[in-house]
Automatic annotation (TrEMBL):
Keywords: Cell outer membrane, Membrane, Signal. Its main location: membrane. PROSITE patterns: PROKAR_LIPOPROTEIN. CDD domains: SusD. This is RagB/SusD family nutrient uptake outer membrane protein. Residues 343-487 form the RagB/SusD domain. It holds the Pfam family SusD_RagB. GO terms for cellular component: cell outer membrane. It comes from the Bacteria. Residues 66-224 form the SusD-like N-terminal domain. It is found in: Cell outer membrane. It comes from Candidatus Pseudobacter hemicellulosilyticus. Belongs to the SusD family.
């Protein structure tokens, strides 16, 4: 576990500079160490900003992790160029290798952020400063640690559960894999703590920080993931009743870079476009089709996350989300069709023209439409009621898309839901269309137990062990007695 140990001990000391919009534009720490840092309010502001910055790392939301959520599903496939097809081919075809830099990148970069949160939580109670600010920073650290562990446990299963600032090499080497159930219990505990410490909203330079609504929204998703729908219902209802969030009137407006942190945003990763910044988004390259100088980008990636024909065809002609989500062509701002594009592409993340990388486009981790659909799902799982509240919240999302409502008595059979199972399938479809290419589809199918069935229907036959990624080989080599590979890898 040498590399893991290095990450845990040093990640909290490195790279704690600016990482997003206004609230993170602080000078970087230089020569920080455990002996002379974490002594003041300003130190902890810099430290929590460093924890936010971990979300922009390559293995988290900069690149690798969000691709897992769609590229392993029926939503997307490899791009149109040789380079784009080789980089993530193994992931798309379920041939993941324990030596893959993608697998190790996801593991290492998530633990980088966890280490920073652990150090903050270990040090903060021993330093006197403003109570309100201490509560906010503590709550943010709990939230970020929970989010990072939630990603890891869904990707790898049993995980080393590190919840303290490790300064003892013996403890580092003793950290084996913790059972999934215990990891989820720790995530739930962190999110409950976060929800009680964070404010409902922030203004000015603090917009974009994690809120109580973000903590409860993630908690609701965690409960649904572990099949505790009756626990998900009240926390998701609390988010809705808070009146902090609304659906934007236009789905298309969600994807304009200038509209980041809007009323529909519950939590999004803040990316910063600035000279010398290492925290700008990379989506313009990852999601644009291959065409030289397209959107002012000299060399596109050919798309590493290209929508499948199946996804494109899943949208009805009346669905207002279709042209804002996926397309087989591109119409520029002046209304002119751009010819010469190869294949389909994701329109949500075409990004800012003339910015090849390092853009301001944020990544949506949680948005209100997601919360409404999670709540509808939780209500249905807790007990199906014909035309009950679950229908209302599902139809609220559909209404924004310009689609007719579901009901138990609809004369149109495509709009009739007559059972709990019918409702499950309707939610599955709506989440696919609403959240397309946002990194949710694969994890939705896994948590509902539908991944193998749905993919088999699309000609993608996977085995049980392929529901998880392999543990990075470097972790096993360093600590073979404690870190055991996932079965059948």
């Amino acid at each position: 576990m040498k590399q893991f140990f290095t990450i845990v001990l040093t990640a909290g000391l490195l790279g704690l500079g600016s990482c997003s919009k206004d609230f993170l534009e602080l000078a970087p720490i230089s020569n920080a160490n455990a002996g002379n840092f974490y002594q003041s309010e300003q130190d902890f502001e810099l430290a929590i900003n460093g924890a936010y910055k971990s979300l922009t790392l390559e293995g988290v939301y900069h690149d690798f992790f969000q691709l897992v959520g769609d590229l392993r599903s029926d939503n997307t496939e490899m791009g149109t160029t040789a380079g784009s097809r080789t980089t993530f081919q193994e992931m798309h075809e379920f041939r993941d290798q324990s030596t893959s830099n993608i697998v190790s990148g996801i593991w290492n970069d998530h633990y980088n952020g966890i280490a920073q949160c652990n150090r903050i939580l270990d040090k903060i109670q021993g330093v006197e400063f403003t109570a309100a600010k201490k509560s906010r920073i503590t709550g943010e650290a709990y939230f970020l640690r929970a989010l990072l562990y939630f990603n890891l446990v869904r990707a790898f299963g049993d995980m080393p559960l590190i919840r303290e600032d490790l300064t003892d090499i013996g403890k580092a080497y003793a950290a084996g894999r913790t059972p999934v159930g215990e990891v989820y219990n720790a995530i739930i505990e962190d999110l409950r703590q976060a929800a009680g410490l964070l404010s409902p909203s922030y203004t000015g330079a603090n917009i974009g920080r994690a809120t109580a609504g973000a903590a409860n929204s993630l908690l609701g998703k965690v409960y649904l993931t572990i099949h505790r729908s009756s626990d998900a219902v009240p926390v998701l209802r609390e988010v809705i009743n808070s009146k902090q969030y609304n659906l934007l009137a236009s789905f298309d407006d969600l994807w304009k870079p200038a509209n980041g942190n809007n009323k529909e945003s519950v939590f999004e990763v803040q990316f910063l476009q600035a000279a010398g910044a290492s925290t700008g988004s990379f989506f313009s390259i990852r999601y644009t089709p291959y065409l030289s100088n397209f959107l002012g980008i000299s060399t596109t990636g050919g798309g590493y996350n290209i929508p499948t024909a199946d996804l494109l065809n899943a949208y009805s002609a009346a669905d207002k989300r279709k042209n804002s989500s996926v397309a087989a062509g591109y119409t520029n701002a002046g209304g002119s069709y751009v010819s010469g594009l190869e294949g389909r592409h994701t329109r949500k993340f075409l990004g800012t023209p003339n910015v090849e990388s390092g853009a301001n486009d944020n990544w949506p981790v949680l948005r209100y439409a997601d919360v409404l659909l999670l709540y509808a799902e939780a209500l249905n799982e807790a007990g199906w009621v014909a035309d009950g509240d679950a229908f209302f919240y599902l139809n609220e999302v559909r209404g924004r898309a310009g689609l007719d409502s579901y009901s138990s008595t609809a004369t149109d059979p495509t709009l009739r839901i007559s059972s709990q199972e019918d409702f499950r399938l309707a939610i599955e479809k709506e989440r696919r269309l609403e959240l397309a290419c946002e990194g949710h589809r694969w994890f939705d199918l896994v948590r509902t137990g539908r991944a193998k069935t749905v993919l088999a229907e699309k000609g993608m036959n996977i085995l049980d062990h392929q529901l998880l990624l392999p543990i990075p080989q470097q972790q096993i080599d360093i600590n073979p007695e404690k870190i055991i590979q996932n079965k059948d890898y």
